[in-house]
Every structure is written in structure tokens, then in C-alpha cells.
TrEMBL record, chains A, B:
Residues 185-295 form the Acyl-CoA oxidase/dehydrogenase middle domain. It comes from Fonticula alba. Residues 538-706 form the Acyl-CoA oxidase C-terminal domain. It comes from the Eukaryota. Keywords: FAD, Fatty acid metabolism, Flavoprotein, Lipid metabolism, Oxidoreductase, Peroxisome. Its main location: other. The lineage of its organism: Eukaryota, Rotosphaerida, Fonticulaceae, Fonticula. Belongs to the acyl-CoA oxidase family. This is Acyl-coenzyme A oxidase. Its cofactor is FAD. GO terms for cellular component: peroxisome. GO terms for biological process: fatty acid beta-oxidation using acyl-CoA oxidase; lipid homeostasis. It holds the Pfam family ACOX_C_alpha1.
Amino acid sequence: MTLTPVKRPEPKQLRAHVIQETVDTVVSAEAARLAEGPEWLTQSQENHGLPLSVERSFASFPVWELTHYLFGGRERAEHRERLMSDIERDPSFMMLDLKHDLPMGSVREATLRRARNFTETILEEHESVTRMRFDVLAMVDPSFMTRVGVHYALFWGTIRGQGTTEQIVDLASQGMLLLKDFFGCFAMTELGHGSNVAGLQTTATFMPESDEFELHTPSLLATKWWIGGAAESATHAVVFARLLSNGTDYGVRPFVVQLRHPQDFALCFGVTIGDCGAKMGRHGIDNGWIQFNRVRIPRRAMLARHVSINRAGVVRERARGSRQLAYGALITARVQIAVDASNACKRAITIAVRYAAVRRQFSPHPEAPETRLLDYPSHQARLMPLLADAFAIHFAAERTQLQQQACSELLEAVPESPLAVRALADLKALHGTASGLKAHSTWLAQRVIEECRQSLGGHGYSSYAGLASLQADFVVQCTWDGDNTVMALQCGRYLVACWRDRTGRAGLSSNLAYLATLEQALAYRSPARRAADFQRLDLLVQLYSSVCAHLVDTAGVKIEQYLSPAGGNMSPDEAYREAAPELLRAARAHCLGYMLRQFAEAVTAAPASLRPPLEKLCALFGLHHLIESAGALCAIALEKSFLSPEQLRDARDCYRALMPEIRADAVPLVDSFALPDFILASPFGRYDGDVYRAYFDRVKFGSTLSNEAARAAGGSGDRRATSGPVRLTGQEHPYFESQLKPLFRRTLPE
Amino acid sequence: MTLTPVKRPEPKQLRAHVIQETVDTVVSAEAARLAEGPEWLTQSQENHGLPLSVERSFASFPVWELTHYLFGGRERAEHRERLMSDIERDPSFMMLDLKHDLPMGSVREATLRRARNFTETILEEHESVTRMRFDVLAMVDPSFMTRVGVHYALFWGTIRGQGTTEQIVDLASQGMLLLKDFFGCFAMTELGHGSNVAGLQTTATFMPESDEFELHTPSLLATKWWIGGAAESATHAVVFARLLSNGTDYGVRPFVVQLRHPQDFALCFGVTIGDCGAKMGRHGIDNGWIQFNRVRIPRRAMLARHVSINRAGVVRERARGSRQLAYGALITARVQIAVDASNACKRAITIAVRYAAVRRQFSPHPEAPETRLLDYPSHQARLMPLLADAFAIHFAAERTQLQQQACSELLEAVPESPLAVRALADLKALHGTASGLKAHSTWLAQRVIEECRQSLGGHGYSSYAGLASLQADFVVQCTWDGDNTVMALQCGRYLVACWRDRTGRAGLSSNLAYLATLEQALAYRSPARRAADFQRLDLLVQLYSSVCAHLVDTAGVKIEQYLSPAGGNMSPDEAYREAAPELLRAARAHCLGYMLRQFAEAVTAAPASLRPPLEKLCALFGLHHLIESAGALCAIALEKSFLSPEQLRDARDCYRALMPEIRADAVPLVDSFALPDFILASPFGRYDGDVYRAYFDRVKFGSTLSNEAARAAGGSGDRRATSGPVRLTGQEHPYFESQLKPLFRRTLPE
Ligand SMILES: Cc1cc2nc3c(=O)[nH]c(=O)nc-3n(C[C@H](O)[C@H](O)[C@H](O)COP(=O)(O)OP(=O)(O)OC[C@H]3O[C@@H](n4cnc5c(N)ncnc54)[C@H](O)[C@@H]3O)c2cc1C
Ligand SMILES: Cc1cc2nc3c(=O)[nH]c(=O)nc-3n(C[C@H](O)[C@H](O)[C@H](O)COP(=O)(O)OP(=O)(O)OC[C@H]3O[C@@H](n4cnc5c(N)ncnc54)[C@H](O)[C@@H]3O)c2cc1C
């Protein structure tokens, strides 16, 4: 149903109010019409999608153009859409949200079912398409994506990065890439060591007499832990172990090790594997633990591109891998997580905004229709900043990826030129920033998801709303692939390193330009003269730069102090350790400032038609994290006189005034993320707004399903939802006979 | 094993460093001793609890005295301990954390099993003991507590509060209190209405011809939703429905309705019930939905203490319940949630601190032992403020309860005296504050739990760590019993009401004293002269009062503006709605300030031996939320010149300096919460520190259990963990034949 809006809003008038009135008018008219019909009609039409249609009809910008801009142009955006519908139609991906009602075993089995068609597909397509496919799949089924990612990115990625050409060719020829008698896992972490990889304790001792290694788990803490795919599906692993030869410890190296026989899946001799058991989310991936009891593996099992060992057990370090390649790979992995964080935010906020446009609660006076949540200023203040976060993380991740690619290409094209020197500096800076971005985008996303979940009220607690599992699946991103605190510290250390080095440098990367002009940044006085000036992105970016400059400077000064005789003559390691809280504060501001700058640049580069809404969102992002979020950046701005108290008040007014403006486009803005219902997998996020009917149907279906499963399991399976909408008698009730009857019939004490 | 510390720290020296060194010395000596023995010995002793013993030996205060102080004196503390061991020994409560590995159906059945012994126990004990029992049970099994709470507090509580004496006696005599043929639920919320209770749509139409009501669900959105106990275990409900008589709508009233026949549990005619299905947590409680299709119930089913209806259908409002009773009940319910929030924080931080005292990661140089997490300044900066939060919420909840009781007793004892006037004012203020406290204590706890979870690294993602389910079970407290945003708004509205009324008042409650002396509060200049002054609790309390005064004032001025002709002549409702973001900000600061003040008063009242550690924790709480947490309170302090920039820097230094001091007592401080391992239900929180062995055993046990369950279910049950530490061959593998074999054996495309 298309609608011509009743009344076009004047520019600058409060469009939000006009939209609110229009929706109320249209909806009441429809309700009156329906009230004349039979009761069943009223019931079934109760919450049709009218509000969303009206909201859409008021969009102030071309929605699909924004979609194209977000996803790299019309062609790529359409390609992405095709990929999504491809996956939607793949039978193995049907009814994804069944996972809420199926036993864990079936969920894991589904992961494998999905892997079957997959390999052929990706081997035939271009890498850029595969990357897009991975982004989408990570939303569709995070567990599946993890299982496949473990094999391709971690297992095979390590072989490709650390194996000699012969080793790579040899292993590929055996079918490793095709999942033919091979399914890999990545066994680095141990019970006792995760972040500190150099401290791993599994040993691989070279036995010259038989030209083999003896792989051994010397202690409980050396047990390989959390290994994705190990529990039930892997045949092989890349195992990280200490290379010992002739009594010398050569540090941790990767070894390709067979765990199970692909014919019958029996464990290889000396290998013990168990399941890590129940966990918070990602139930479809089988994490396991592995112990080796003096397992013999051939010498060629060690991946030997960088370090090799000969027949006599002599260990030789070969040319170390190119720095730039290593940076490139690390940046890619971390930015990939930021992409995932932005996607998680997009899903959560799409669900929250659409529901808020439909849900009504409380009316201002008895005759008025109830107010929609989206029309509450407090609800706007909750959701609009999260919408801005989703965009900010999106652009920051996207653009970091592009910069990394550009630098790497430049380095390859003109390796010795001055341009290349600059590119390498940029790459290093990107690496420093990417660690922080990984941490801060995932922390941000965690909060976005939880706030969206709570914004649904009680329904956010239902699994079918999709937000609880989004959260549970997502949060491990704060921990793996570099624990967030460790990553943020890495970013902070990099910032201080640049700070210490700032004068000696030819030129700092643009991301760190504020360190090159430190004095200037610290002497900054905002020229903003009224509230509206705080929508100026250039001013916001400068303000952040000054705040960052101050925080990096503070951390740097503290560290110099610790290093000095007066401050205790600490070693650099100790100094950085002691100053960790300051480093974390600096890294946090830097990452927010980085996201802001990337976002602002994306606004500048956007087609004119898209600039107004994006500009507002970008300003909201900057203002929100300045004024409201943890860390009190605005206090630093006041303290250092970057802002005067009056200016801070103006900034708050601007922040406040942006809410209803962005709210007026909130539905079109989440539409621009172009997430199909299939991926949202939440009745509350439905494009058509028919949330209640869909929710009720899903709940009824869940009961029926559990009923069936329980019946199939002979009554001893998962009987959670056995009552269903059926009229239960004692016989069918899961525990009436065992619990309720004895309770009701007991004789009471005197 | 008891240890004499190697070296007693000088006062004011960095005790944290001394402790660190002592632990390292003792642990290395022990390790050297073990290294001489056989390998299995080294393995099994790998992470004995030595570090915790050493930490404890350095306690700067008498730990059990603090326990007694926390829990209302030695006698009560010991009683609480006895209760806990009682529950621990009750066979139906054994092996609580089995829930991670059992199918949902068994978890729900366990809830009922636990209910069996329960009723007799509580009917025989004093109410204050029962309250203590409830606090403990809410930690032990939140689902069980919910089921029992629904029956006693909500179902029976409504009958007691809204029924006539006859109705109460009549229902009690039928066995309602004894769970004899009665198990109640509380059916208020509908699919379409939660916060707005006045908008509920279920109808109860009086039928004078048969002296009955016709209870009806007129639309999908009127379906009763989320009703705890409805899906599988309730026989009766208190149903909230609109009372219609002679064509007039008398608003929402409570009705006692039978849902099922206790003999065979068949549903009553016209009642349809379904399961709400999968949800985020509290899996042991059976939430259901209910629809009524013109169900007839007798006239006496309406609880008629406040509103009655006669044979002719004439509705009469009786004397309204006493205000003070209503306040009392609301305060009790909300404070109860704050108590639960503090308990959740205590559990989470106990686990996080003990693990951090054992876990090592990274060494400063190759020969040194790795650093324990607790010795990282960044880890201290993460955990110590959370420890302070746990104490702050504890004291605030505890003391609010006591104040409420004191006021109520005073009101009863000398109803007409000037004392009573003051007591009533205090009770109203407490009610305003309690709404905000409910919201902010649960929001705080949600973040505390998540941060603790992440602080464990990867192991925090394991269900067996206990933090994921603590979180999932807990967060619904942000939504039910008054959605947090709605509660915080209520608090904000109350604050502004007091602000508007501040001159007309005889005297404001002490919690709002800062409004009575508004000008003074706004003109405040901190007298702090050096960093150490920011440990002075009186100064911190004053600072908070001024910040609160400013924020309430800002919100109030804004509302006056909206109400004025210049500001749009809004209705009060509209004005409060528009100013909601300002109200929320004021409420937030007020609640933090309230917690701080309660905490500070508890410090003053504490025995001298406990004051030093509590003082530091209290200061940390105040400083943390001033400087670091969301909302940037310190920016307001700067802006209004309550603090100068130099003073803010001093405050930061003080904040920073408190970390290692509190860290030195961190283990004894969490010990003082006196949570037994049984309640912590996390290997990482074990009192003896033997975390890894316990974790590994639990994981192995989980697999075995799932194996057995799967076998019992004939292979089609929950097969999540079927691999276990067993050597799997294809035959036993849950999906080798169906998925892996076809994958490995397929013919590849050319
Ligand atoms: C679901 C899941 C799947 C996984 N899959 C795999 C897999 O397939 N293969 C694999 O090899 N691993 C896997 N992992 C392991 C993961 O990589 C590790 O959990 C991660 O690297 C963190 O290590 P850790 O758990 O040992 O935490 P730790 O390193 O012990 O960290 C614990 C805490 O200490 C803090 N900390 C650590 N060092 C410092 C420091 N220097 N300064 C300040 N604070 C510090 C951290 O911030 C953290 O809070 C998986 C983990 C999970 C949860
Ligand atoms: C596990 C569980 C068990 C439950 N058990 C029971 C039970 O046994 N019996 C029972 O009757 N109920 C029960 N409930 C329901 C619970 O009481 C409601 O979910 C709660 O009252 C919130 O109502 P709602 O879900 O309709 O949210 P809504 O009221 O629709 O709120 C949705 C969102 O809108 C916001 N909002 C609402 N009004 C305003 C406003 N005026 N201004 C600004 N923002 C606003 C809220 O903050 C929230 O974010 C249960 C819920 C859950 C999740």
C-alpha cells in the first residue's frame, strides 16, 4: 500500500511531529473502517504495517541511494542483495530461527549440513565476492561462519602464511581446500594461555633417531582449549607448540597434525579430545579440548616458511616474512571484526526502530491514541545515538579496509618510492588503529545490542526477538582474535610510541596528524558560536583531535616520568604496564575520534542528496560520545579550555535538537541497511511492521515443534514447551504425574 | 594451609607490591618442590590455591566482622549462613549447575521438585527469616524463586492486598497458601500492554442475569503474555481485566480465575494457554500466554476490597487503601530488586577477583613468573570500581529497607504527631528514590556482570563460569516490575515535583535536602586542596548534591519553560514528556548520589576496624561515577565551578591511587560477601583457588552427562556434547554418517 503523505513538512519545521500526526490520522481511519467488520477481522488486522508505510513516505532522502553508497556502489549493493537471496533460498539455510527451539545437537548438525554445498561455491567465485558472502553469512549463521572461518581463514590461512610453497602445494593437492577428507581446526589457545601466545606449553620435541616430532601436552594447563571444530568435526589441526631440539627451546611454531581418521572418525593414537561443553552462544560450533600423549608426527609437519629444521635437528631462521604482509593480514582480520560489529548494530537497531514505530504505550489523555515509542523524546535519546554508532562503525571499518588495500597496492607497485615510505607509515598507523578499532567497535556493539534489546521491553527477553542470541553470539568478538583490553593497550602503546617519536618523523599518518601538530592541538579553542555550529563536522573532528592529543600527551608524559630516575627508573615494559589506565583512555578517545573522522570523510564524499541525513548522524555520533558516553571527554574539553562552559551548553542543545530531526528519518535510515526479514530473523523487525501476528505465530510454532521433538524423543528429549496451545490433560503433561500431583495430593501436616 | 606473611607491609607503602612478591616467592618455592616429583603430581597440583591463601594472610581488616556488618550483625549473618547450608544439603538443590547440560524440560521439572518441601518450611518460620531465605534462593535458583515469588508475592500478595477479609479467608481455607490444589500465577501483562496497565484490554463484563462475569480476550493484543507459571504449572490466576457493567467501563480490576483442574490438569472450558517459548534466561520458569473465550466466572471472583459490585451490577468504590501501605509495598518490591542486583554484583565480582588472583598471563621478562591479572593496573581499574558498586548497591538497598520499615513503624505508632508528618514525607521521598534505585541498581549490575564476564577472557564465555547465565537470568530485572526507563522517569518526575514545591514545604526528606538549600548547593565550591581530600566522603557527598541540584534545577526550569506561554503552553504531561531526557539525567545523578550517601553513612556507622577499607571503596564509588562512567558528571562539576580543573586533576589522581590500595584487600573484601562455592557455582570463583582442575572436571562431567542423556533419549535428544573425552568412531558420532561421511566421500566436480 503506497501512501501520499497528507501534508508535506516545511523544511526545518519539526517533521517528527507531522509524521506522528499523519500516522495517527491514517491509523485511526483504518481502525474505524475495520471496527465495522466482524471481530476476527479486527483481530487479524490489529497491527498492520501502516505506521511504517507512513514513516517511509516521509523519507527526506533517496533510501536506495544510501544503500548503494553504503555498500560500494549500485552494482556491489545489488550483488550483495543477490547473495542474500541465494542464501535465503538454499534449503539448508531455511528457518534459521528454529535454532531457538531445537536441541543443541541438531543445531550443530545443521552447521555441517550448511558446509556441504558451500565449498564448491566459494572455490568458483572471485575473492571479493567471497568476502561479501562471508559478511552476509556471519549475520545469517555466526556458528556456521565460525566453523568455515576456522577452516579457511585460520587453518588454511596459517598453512598459506607459514608453510613453504611445497607444503602448501602438497596439502592442497590432498584435498584440504575442498573439504575432501580434511576439515581443519586451529589449535593455538591452551587452558593456561590465550593472549600470551609465547607462553604456550605444548611441546614438539624433535627426535632425530626417527626424524619425527613428539607432540606432548605436559600439564593440565597445556591442554588445547576452545578449539573450534575440534570436538566433533575436525580431522586435522594446526597445532601451535614449542619447538624443542637438541635441548634448546626455539619458541612456538605451527604444526599440521592429524586428529582423526576420515574413514570412521576414530581418534588417532595418543590424541584425546573432549567437548568444551555448554557456552554462552554460537551453539552451532563444536569447541573442544585436545591433549597429546607423546604423539609422533613427521618432520615435514612443521610449517617451515620462516623457521626450518633439518634432518639433524638444526633449526634455522629463514628470511622473516615481509612486515607489510603481516600488517595487512592483521588489519584485515581486525577490520573484519569491526565489519561484523557494524552489522550486528545494524540488525539490532533495525529491529528496535521498526518496533518503536509500531509499538504504542500510554496516551497523553484518555481519548488520544497511545503514543508510539519512537515519538517519546526519551526513546529517541536512547535509540538515535545507537543508529549513529551503526553508521560510524560501518564507515570506519569500510574505509580502513580500503586504505589498507590502497597502501598495500602502492607498496607493491612502487616499492622504493617516497610514496611507498608514506604508505608504509600509513599501514603501521592503520595497524595500531585497527587493534583499537577491533576493541572499541565490539564493545560499542555489545552495548548497542543490549540497549536495543531492553528498548523492546519484555519482548526483548524472548528468544524469538532475535536480540538475546545476537548478543550471546556476538560478545565473544570482544575476547577472541585478540582480547579487547589487550588490543586497546596495543593501540595505546602505539599512540605513545608515535608521540615519543613525533619530532623525529618525516610525517605521521593522517590518522595521527594531531600528534605532529601537538602544540597546536593542545592550544585549540573551539570557534563555535552557537548551538548549530556543533553540527559542523570539521569543528567536531578538530575538537576530538585536541582531546586525543591531550590524552596521548598525558599518557606519554606519565610514561617518561616512570622511565626517569625520579619516577622509579622503570623498564619500558614496567612503565607501559603502570600507565595502562592512561593508555586505555587515550586509545578509547583515539578510536572514537578515528571513527568520527572516517564518518565525516564519508559524509563529504557522499552524493549531495545523502549528505544532510548523514551529516546529522555523524554530528550526533561525535556529540554523543563527547557528552554522554563513558570517559567524560567533554570534561577534558572544558578542563583544557578547548570548549568554554557556554559552548558545552550549546553542544548539548545541538545534541538534543538533532534527536527529533534524525528520528524523522529513522525508519528510512534503517531501511537503507537493506537487511531482509530472513536475516533479521525477528518478528519485531519485520519490514511490513506486522509484528504481533508474526510473533504470535512464531511462538505457537515453537511450541508445536518442541512438542514434536519431545514426542520423537519418547518423552525424554527437550520438553520445554510441551504444553503448547493444546488442552493438556495430566497424561500428556511432562511432569504432572511426577511433581504436580504429589504436590497437590499430599497430606498436610497438622 | 596457613601462612605467615614473609614481610608485613609498612602502612602507606604499596601493600599491593608486597603481596605480589610474596605470592611469587611462595608459589615458586612450591613449584620447585613439585618439579622434583613425578609428572602426574606436577600436573595435578598445577594451580593450587596458594595465591589466595597469601592474599588472605595480608588482609588489613577483620574479614568476618565485615560479613557481620554487611548482614545485620553476627547473629543474622550466622543465620544466613545456616540457611545457605540448609539449602545446599536439600537433595532437590544438588548440583545446581547441571542446568547448563540438561534439557529445558528437566530444568523446569526441577523447579517443581524444589517447590515441594518449600511451602511447609516457610509457613513455619518468621517473616524476616523468610525474606532472608528468599534473598538466598534468588541467588541459588532464580527460576525457582520466580515461580515461588509469583505465587506468594504476586498472586497471593494481590489477594491479600485487594481482597476483602472474607475473600482472603475463603481462599486461604481452600489451601491456597499451602499449594494444596492451588498454584497461582499473576496475569497482568498483555501482548499489547505492559507498562501502561490502565490500557489493558481483557474484559470482564458483568452479566446480571446469571450473577457472573464473562471474561474475554477481545483481540490478539489482549492476550495475556509472559505469565510466569501459566504454561505448565498454574491452576489459578489473578487476572487483571476491565470491569464492564451496564455499559460502563470501570477500569482495570483483579479477578481470581481458575485455569486448570488440579485433578488432571486439564484446562478449564474456554481457556487457551500456550507456552511463550524460548527466552534469554530463567529457563526453569514456565512463562505462558492465556486467552479467554467468554469464560464465565462468579461475581465473588472479583477482588473487592477497594471496588465492589453488587447483584445488580452497581459498582461502588470503597475507601481507598492507605497511601502509606501502598508506598510501603512498592518500596519493598523495588528495594528487593536492588538487593538482588547487589547480590548479582557480589557473585560476579567474587568470581572475577578470585580468578584474577590466580590467573597469570605474560611475564615482564623471560625468567620472571607471569604476572597475575590482579597485579595489572589496567585489570585493577576494571575490577575495583565494580567491587565498589557491589558494596554501594548493598548498603543503599539495605538502608532504604530499614528506613522504610522505620517510617512505617513510626506512622503506625504515632499517626498524628509531627514525627509522623515527617515520616510520611520521608516515605514519599523513599518511594521516588526507590523507583530510580530499582532502575539504576539493575542497570549497574548488568554492566558489572558483563565486565566481570569479559575479565575472565575466553573462559568467561563458558557456561560453567556461571557468569553468562547470571547475566541472562538477571537482566530481566531491568524490564519487569516496572521497566527501568519508566521507573527512572518516575523518579525524575518526583524530583522535579519536589523542586517546584521546594519553598512551600515544611521540610524535605534528607534524601532531597539539596533541593531545600538549592541556592547554596548551586553556589558550592569544593574546598578540596589536594588529591587526598577526594577521599573525604563528606566532600564527595556535597559535590554530588550540587551536581544533582544543578541537574534537577535544569530539568525543572525546562519544564516551567514548556508550561509557559513562551515555551508552547504545554500540558504538564506534554512538558514532562518533552523534558524526559533531562529528567533521566537528573534521576541518574540523584540515584548515584543517593547510593553514595547511604554508603558513606554506612561507613560512619561501621566499627572502627572496618572503616578504612570501606572508606576507600566508598570514595572509589563516588569518584568512578563522577569521572569515568556515562553521563560525565565531572563535566557538570567543572561547568558550574563546583570543581576547578586542578581539583578535577586531583580527583583523578586520588581515583588512580585508590586502585592498588583496594586491590591489596580485594580477596578479603570479596570473601566478606561470604558466598559459598555452592552458590557461586563457578570453578573460577572457588574459595580454594583450585580453578583449573575444577573447571576441567566440570567440563568432562558435562560431556559424560550429555552422553548419557543422549543415550537415554535414543540418540535423538540433546546431543550437543556427545563426543566427550571418549574415542569416537563413526558409529557413535552424532552426525558422522549423515553429514561428515557424505562430505568427505563426495565426488568432486571436474
Ligand atoms: C567461543 C570461543 C572460540 C574460540 N576458538 C578458538 C580457536 O578455534 N582456536 C584457538 O586457538 N583459540 C580459540 N579461542 C580462544 C581465544 O582466542 C582466547 O580466549 C583469547 O585469545 C583470550 O585468551 P584467554 O581466554 O586465555 O584470556 P587471557 O589471555 O587469560 O585474558 C584474561 C583476562 O586478562 C586480561 N589480560 C591479559 N593480558 C593482559 C595484559 N597484558 N594486561 C592487561 N590485561 C591483560 C584480558 O583482558 C582478559 O580480561 C576461542 C575462544 C572462545 C571463547
Ligand atoms: C521473563 C518475564 C516474565 C514476566 N512475568 C510476568 C508475569 O508473571 N506476570 C505479568 O503480568 N507480567 C510478566 N512479565 C511482563 C513484564 O511485567 C513486562 O514486560 C513489563 O512490565 C514491561 O512491559 P512491556 O514488555 O509491555 O514493555 P512496554 O511497556 O511496551 O515498553 C517497551 C519500551 O518502551 C519504553 N516505554 C514505555 N512507556 C514509556 C514512556 N511513557 N516513556 C518512555 N518510554 C517508555 C520502555 O522503556 C521500553 O523500552 C514478564 C516479563 C518477562 C520478560
